Amino acid sequence: MTTRTAPGGALARLIRSSADRRPAAGAAEVCDLCAEPLSEDHPHLYDTGQAEVRCACRACSVLFADARHGTGAGDGQFRLVPTRRIRLPEVDTAALGVPVGLVFFVPRADGSVTAEGPSPAGAMRWEVDAAAWQRAVAGCPPLAGMTPDVEALLVNTVHGLDHHWIVPVDDCFRMLAVVRREWRGLSGGGRMWPAVERFFEELTERP
Fold it and tell me: Do 104 and 142 fall within a single domain?
């Protein structure tokens, strides 16, 4: 399994796109594609070319992306980020070879799987062994139905917790934004882990 730090690459851009794309005080949030004002529960599109999550109005989400295949006016560049969340029974993620308890696993359109999570050195990314992932899928069949690039297995087993979820990738980037905001020192400090626990406690299942 290959491990690399990605403080300035695609993952960092994704975290910024989730945490920092906020309108100025008093300004309405707008669609990243057409600049139309957005409702609070607007859709998100995953931009495969820039590895960014983009806010979209309803019209652009229909025009530019197909929920199943990522096809539309964007010629496959944009994929609609689903909204479903499914809480899972415990998944043996230790067998996937990732040495951290706060991590998310994203199956990719090319068949590979990446694991991403925070560390004192910045955001880390691992390439997961394909055979190990298939064994995890065999033990937890809902993982086989995850949509590549836009859904993730999100895990938190730190401090004895047992959180295993299938979530849209923008949930993962929100979690990383919480970590980035609260992290202090080498271990995260006294504020970061309670903030992460609150994040997981507030997750709710959605169809």
Answer: yes
